[in-house]
Amino acid sequence: MPKTSANKSAARQAERYRQAHQTERAVPTPNGAVRRAVQKRQAPAGFGGFIREFPWLSGILTVAILGAGLLTLRANHLPPFAIKATPDACAWAKKSSGTANGAKITRTYASAPPACITTATGNYQAVLYLKKGGNITIQLDQKAAPVTVNNFVFLATHHFYDGLTFHRVVTNPLVAQAGDPRTVDPKADLSQGLTQTPSSPDGAGYFIPDELPTSSAVYKAQSIAMANKGKGTTSSQFFISTGDNTSLPASYNYFGQVTNDTFAVLKTVQQNDVINSITITYDPKGTPGVVPATPTPTK
Question: Environment class of residue 116 by beta-carbon count within 10 Å: exposed (0-12), middle (13-18) or buried (19+)?
C-alpha cells in the first residue's frame, strides 16, 4: 500500500531518532588549563613526578652527583686520583742482587749513596765472580764500618764493578786491588793518582767518610778494606789482603773478610784478572758480620 506523506514524515523522524542513539557524542577538546589539570592528575608521584614537573633540575642534580663522586675519589686517592708510590731509595739494600742485566752501567755518580745500611740491618755477603773462573765470597761487616759497607753494596748492586780488573796485585804489601773504573778499558792510562779529588776518573765521583779501625790487627790475610790516597779520599777502590798486612797503618776502612772456603781462589788472582760481576746476598734476619752457618752457594 503506498505510503502517505504523514507516514513518510513519521518514518524520517524514526530514522533520525535511531541514528542519534547509535552515534557517539563528540567530546569537545579541553582548553590548556583543563589539559594541564588532566596531565597533573595522570603524572606519577614521588621523585619521578618531581623531575617530570621540573625537568630542568635533572641536569643540575646529575652534575652535583658526578661532582660529589669525583670529590670522593680524590679524597680517598682512588683512580684517576691515585697517588703514585714514591720509589724506595733503599730498595737496593733490602734484597739480594743478581748478575748484570745488560743495562748501561753508571761509573760516575754526583754524590754518595743514601745511608740505607746500618749496624743492625741484617747480614750481607758479596760473591765476586772472576771471568777466568772461580769466585770469592766476602762476608761484609757493617758493624765495623756501616758507611763503607753501604757504599760497597750500593756499587755492587748497581754493577759498578762489573768488567773492572784487579789492576794491582803485589807482594809488598800482599794485596789484590780493584775498583778503578778506568780499567774497564784495557788501554786506559792508570798513571793518574788514586782518588785525589771527587772528580778523579779512578773513583765513583764522590768520597765517603773515613771509618778507620782502632788497630791494624784487622788487616790480616783474607781481610778486605778500601784503598785511598789519604784522609777523606775513599771512593770505590778496595783491596783484599792475600797475606798478613798487619804492619800497615790503620788508615784504611776495613769492612769484611774472605770466607775460608774461597780463600784458595783469592790466592790465584793475578794482575788484570777481570771481575765479571759482584752479587750481594742479603739475609734480613742474619747477624751482621758473621758468616752464616750455611755458606753462600757458589757457582
Answer: middle
